[in-house]
Write a structure and sequence with these properties.
The protein is an alpha+beta fold. The protein is 26% helix and 30% strand. It has a five-stranded mixed sheet. It is globular and about 35 Å long.
Length: 94
């Protein structure tokens, strides 16, 4: 798995572990592009995760969506919507 950061390790940590939200309330989308599986905020350009493995990209997308309580949109290789999982109404767990 390759994390896209713009060259800064601290930025990668913030993107993946949630130390500050890039776009609060934006859904997370996992999709296939340029022979790679990618996960990003819906409507945002840069990918949070880029991987050759679909399962890694899906797992990262699910974890991000659960953490931020948004929807996880999953697309197939052709860009068609496969499913939309909502994590908006999860109970508070501390």
């Amino acid at each position: 798995m390759r994390l896209v950061t713009g060259g800064r390790a601290a930025e990668t940590r913030r993107l993946i572990l949630g130390e500050g939200s890039i776009v609060a309330g934006s859904n997370v989308e996992t999709y296939y592009e340029d022979l790679l599986w990618k996960t990003r905020r819906e409507g945002c350009g840069p990918s949070l995760v880029v991987s050759t493995s679909q399962s890694e990209a899906l797992d990262a997308g699910r974890r991000t969506a659960v953490r931020d309580r948004v929807d996880h949109i999953i697309r197939d290789i052709d860009g068609r919507l496969l499913c939309r999982n909502s994590y908006r109404d999860l109970p508070n767990i501390r």
